[in-house]
Amino acid sequence: MAETTTLFHLSDIHFGLEDRRALDWVVGELAARRPSAVAITGDLTMRARHREFAAARQWIGALEAPVTVEVGNHDMPYFNLIERFTTPYQRFREIQNLVEREIDLPGLALVPLKTSTRAQWRFPWSNGWVTDKALRHTLDAIDALPPGKQVLVTAHHPLTEFNERGKRLTIGGTRALEALAGRNVLAVLSGHIHDAFDIVTETAKGPVRMIGAGTLSRRIRSTPPSFNELRWDGETLSVEVRNLQHVPTPAMQIDEVPEDAMPPREPGEPVAPIGQVPAVDPPVH
Predict the structure, then answer these.
(1) Which of 12, 65, 126, 285 is the most exposed place for a label (fewest CB within 10 A)?
(2) How far is 113 from 101, CA to CA, in rounded Å?
(3) DSSP code at position 93
(4) How distant, in Å, are the alpha carbons of 27, 109, 121, 177 from that of 148?
């Protein structure tokens, strides 16, 4: 039996609206568990402000583990369209070496897949889009790995292209999943929707496992702030959704990828002001 590799999968920290108690707890868990790597699948900031990126860089820079960071839709400049279209990633410059970084571990590799774009032909621009260039870059990286090396693909958006009601979510998601199904991909790790999930999607080329992490912000949807602890023993990839409320993993994981990260509302229910956190009960499955 191979030695077990432990990974922390974090997402949607949203500095500017971060949950400081949850972040301090994660730092303590990192010190105690000493994972082999940390994958942060996007949305480091709330509005891509300079002060939010400064806080994100300071926190990530103190993590004592190899880190890879995906770009989320919230990490694109909101208030400076010239910068958004010309140099959309310059606010990552102090941690540029961590952005879309490949991490090579014994028997396992983390390979990024870019799903956030500076603009789209549709609205909202916050939805995912796997471009031909982005997919080819990821596939080339996977194909360059030694034979037998297993892969975790890191992305911000889940690769679900259409939900059960026919709403289009991530453009190119189906094509990407089909391409990944033919390779040694254990799972696609993502965030974006602020609730954890662990689902298998059937494609024309075979099944693909998709694992989503919740949020470490105060912008919660239906579950408390959390992160995923992944364990790979050479045969099985297991997932535990860690949270301060000690809600069991199955109760933290949703069954379907929703359209967005906003809390579900009943018809006529008022929208809570930003920063006001609603009471949370574990979802019923």
Answers:
(1) 285
(2) 10
(3) G
(4) 33, 11, 39, 19
Q: What is the DSSP letter of 190?
A: E
Average pLDDT of span 125-132: 92
Cβ atoms 13, 39 nearer than 8 A? no
For 33-92, how does the pLDDT look when each residue is reduced to its tens digit (9 = 90+)?
999 999 999 999 999 999 999 999 999 999 989 999 999 999 988 777 788 878 878 888
pLDDT at residue 276, as a whole number:
37
Helix axes 173-181, 132-143, angle to 10 degrees: 10
Query: Shortest CA distance to 189 belongs to which of 224, 220, 158?
Result: 158
Paired tokens of 126: 């916050």
Mean pLDDT score of the chain, rounded to an integer?
A: 89
- How does DSSP classify residue 161? -
* Contact criterion met (CB below 8 Å) for 16 and 47: yes
Q: How confident is the model at residue 181 (pLDDT cuts 50, 70, 90)?
A: very high
Model confidence, pTM: 0.90
In order of their start, the domains of the chain are 5-254 (3.60.21.10)
